[in-house]
Write a structure and sequence with these properties.
There is one protein chain. About 20% of the residues lie in helices and about 25% in strands. It is an alpha/beta fold and about 260 residues long. The chain has one domain (about 5-235): Spore Coat Polysaccharide Biosynthesis Protein SpsA, Chain A (Alpha-Beta Complex), CATH 3.90.550.10.
């Protein structure tokens, strides 16, 4: 029987220090950076609500109390809870800290400083079809030099993560869009310590059932002043329950 989004726990990784963004967003965490009149994280929450998810754990750190104060325990039909790190743990460490709160299988994990207009219900369906332990949403961008690129086989198995390379600026390709589904977390440290999901864990999982899912919708991250400046324009057409329209990636004819 297919897993429904309502039965899937979601972790949003929103604990980063946001040092590169401090010149334009200095008094709040990146998750609350205003984009189009809304805190950025609400685009993720609206997307989750639209596709029928119900349980969200926000992994917070730097100025995390602001996130909890702003969002509270509910956002529409979403139930919110928080995993607060006391010292910077990185994306892998903060996910490890939150594991006791993630009681479903699979678990949806999202970066709190990027957005991809992807059909999350279809992503969940394809993840189950692959019968691997993990799936990662990939976005095609005209220049992969700032992100690094991801290579996949015709059957969508991930074969490599290529480091950022400014010497190859202007090369199009697939990049990690910061949205994942995991049935398990092999190799995650038993103790809680700093680790990077992107650098320490994902590369180690290649060959163990990690698949890519290519999304065709808008992808934006707000990690730098330059990308943050373009975020409102890029997300202007990406709407949902609490904005004006609905997501372009959604199946308008089907159920939520």
């Amino acid at each position: 029987m297919a897993v429904e989004p309502a039965a899937v726990s979601v972790a949003i990784l929103a604990g980063g220090l946001g040092t590169r963004l401090r010149t334009v967003v200095s008094n709040r965490p990146k998750a609350l950076a205003e984009v189009g009149g809304c805190p950025f994280v609400t685009y993720l929450l609206c997307q989750l609500e639209y596709y029928g998810f119900r349980t969200v754990i926000l992994c917070i750190g730097y100025l995390g109390e602001q996130v909890e104060d702003a969002l509270g325990e509910r956002y529409g039909s979403l139930r919110l809870s928080y995993s607060q790190e006391d010292t910077p743990l990185g994306t892998g460490g903060s996910l490890r800290l939150a594991l006791p709160l993630l009681r479903s299988g699979p678990v949806l994990v999202m970066n709190g400083d990027s957005f991809c207009d992807v059909d999350l219900r279809d992503f969940l369906r394809r993840h189950e079809e692959h019968r691997g332990f993990g799936s990662i949403v990939l976005a095609e961008v005209p220049d992969t030099s700032r992100f690094g690129r991801v290579r996949i086989e015709p059957d969508n198995r991930v074969t490599s993560f290529v480091e950022k390379d400014k010497d190859h600026a202007g090369n199009a390709g697939l990049v990690n869009a910061g949205v994942y589904l995991f049935n398990a977390f092999p190799g995650v440290p038993g103790d809680i310590r700093p680790a990077s999901l992107e650098k320490d864990l994902l590369p180690a999982w290649i060959g163990s059932g990690l698949y890519g899912y290519v999304a065709r919708g808008v992808f934006i991250d707000i990690g730098t002043p330059e990308t943050y400046a373009h975020a409102a324009a890029m997300l202007a057409g990406v709407k949902c329950l609490r904005h004006d329209d609905c997501f372009s990636g959604a199946d308008k004819s089907g159920e939520r």
